[in-house]
Amino acid sequence: MHQYEIQEDRKVIIDWLRRLGIEFHTSFVVVNPDIPDHPIAYANQAFFEMTGYSEEEVIGRNGKFLHGIKTDTNTGTRIREATATAQPGIFEIVNYRKDGTPFWNEITVQPLAFPEKSLRYILMLQRDISDRRRAETLIELQKETYKGIEKGHMLGMLLQNICETAESFFLDGSRCTVLLVDEAKRFQVGAAKSMPEEFTLGMRGLEVAADVSPCGAAYLRQQPVVVEDVAQDALMDGQQDLLDQFGIKAIWSVPIFNGQEETIGTFGIYFPSVYKPSEKDLVFMEEIASIVSLAVKFSRQQEEILRLAYIDEESGLPNRHYFRTELEELLKDGKEGFVAFISADEFIKISDQYGHKAGNDLCRELGRRLVLAGGTREKLVARFSDSRLSLYSTIPLTRAPEFLEDILSSLREPVSIGEMDLFLTVKVGVAIVTPAQQNAEELVRCADSALSKAKERVGEAICYFENEQDEVMMRDLRVANALTAALKRKEISVFLQPKVALESRDILGFEALARWKSPELGDISPAIFIPAAEKNGKIRQLEQHVIEQVLSWLKKRQERELELRQVAINISAEHFFHHSFVPHLVDETKKYGVDPKWIQLEITERIGVVDIDTAGTVFEQLKKYGFATSIDDFGTGYSSLSYLQKLPVEEIKIDRSFVSNMDEHGTRAVIRTIIQLADNLGLRAVAEGVETEDDRTQLLGMGCTIAQGFLFHRPMPLDEAHLL
């Protein structure tokens, strides 16, 4: 079939779909799966009305323009795969209207085939299911609240969960609050995690008034109060500067009633833009408020029961009986975490000198700080004995060292006893919760044993209980714990391993390798501390530290008028895709006065399956600024050939696992193919891990010209590399 005939057939099909769209009131779009990025070829009027976009803004674009912060990327990927393979399916995803409002969209993917024309399209039926999702969410939220009450969870935790659930159905940046009113007719903050701390401090204890805020007005009027535009509403007169500071442009508030139709507080939503509610929005808010009322009523009843049985009257903290009972229940969830005992060396002295009440006050203050420290992640704090506080947290173990450091930091501030501010020496004993260790009594015993070891040390100390079963996990915890301090103290050093010309053995460049010698743990392999940095959220900081050392080394060579050679730096996928990666790199090269051409970024080929489109954009930015790029560990997995031609890189590195197995016929064939592929694409092929003359000879015979490995040079400190 001639090209003009294909085009004519497409026009006929699109015209048929257009007529169908007039009759078909369900929203739908038609995409062309044979064109890269699957552009929308047609959308009916119902789709424009549902999304708020015009035909000019839709046709020819990929459906990803409807995505936003709340959109699940995995579902988006599944929809694209179904489109590309013409597989029918039904998907539910959060999309965004043109005005920024998120909505739940049910997308039915249905292939349209025209065999006689050798053409195909994908029909995507679109249905706004937000009402159904809201109804389902309300039912689930009610169940979660009941369960939380039964387990004795703190009211603030229950209310915050309600707020966060409600926020997911409104504009990005929307923030929900629950303000309760006490007997003195003053606001008490039930939940306001999304709001700035200044807001929480300002609202706590504020007298309720009808002419000061929508929340006060909603409480006293006992009806919803909507301020669509704070700049135009008389209710907000005189508060514009404060509202601008918090980024608030609209406020909706509904009253919260108890069972006697008395108002006990308000549920409010604060928006970053002028915003008008629909009738369904207000009904949803009122239903949320009724769940808040349920949580407040039954939680207070439960709290009173628990207070009588499980509260240490002298400090106001939960007692050891409560801690043991709750710990047994929480462990049933099977989550990892840790149990810790915390004690201040000065407790006995304070009790002896200032009286038993002073000791109770000290425990109360330490307990308060523990509750606030380390973020809002679920944790349990109790007074286990006169001088010991107990803590249980479900934080992932890879983050435990950082979490415990936050706790210690909160306890370093002085404590006021009498007329004195006293600094405490805090000791912590930790028992980790693992699949092999889920026994509450045993965890308590282990944490107590670890605390005893901590008390034997001078000054502030954290000790972990160790056993053979947890040896590997404890090693990772010790590494993660020491890594945070190591980065602060700049213990991570950089070694350079030269890249050489295989024929002449001349040095062509270097690869920067991170090395760590810990004062406490000795030499730690990169195979251990780099994965620990990735798990602990420290990999960007580690790689930025390496970049700074390399640039400093290059700057010194410039100042000494020594020959400059390109240095390759390994970059993780997390760092590569971070929005600050390229700007930070550019700023650092300017700061040190080093031309970007002397820096090469080595990226593992795994980035090809993370987000090929974004990866291509980042590589283009690096190329624009003059940085060189390389694909590391090439050929070890994933679809290398399918994406390599899309990425503007200059070099691919043959993984050492291939070089070390070159005696195998199949491996030699792979290496030869990679070298030929690189040559065909105009790229350099660099072999890693060359250790013998036989390796060198075989690689030269296959056409490889550049390599690195122990045969030529081992990694060396920066000062030693200056001599080359």
TrEMBL record:
Enumerate the spans annotated as PAC domain.
87-141
Q: Enumerate the spans annotated as PAS domain.
A: 40-67
Q: GGDEF domain location, by residue?
A: 335-467
* Domain named EAL: residues: 476-724
Any one GO MF term held by the record is:
cyclic-guanylate-specific phosphodiesterase activity
Q: What InterPro entries does this protein's entry cite?
A: Cyclic-di-GMP_PDE-like, EAL_dom, EAL_sf, GAF, GAF-like_dom_sf, GGDEF_dom, Nucleotide_cyclase, PAC
User: CDD domains attached here?
Assistant: EAL (cd01948), GGDEF (cd01949), PAS (cd00130)
PROSITE patterns recorded:
EAL, GGDEF, PAC, PAS
A Pfam family this chain is assigned to: GAF_2
Output this protein's name: Bifunctional diguanylate cyclase/phosphodiesterase
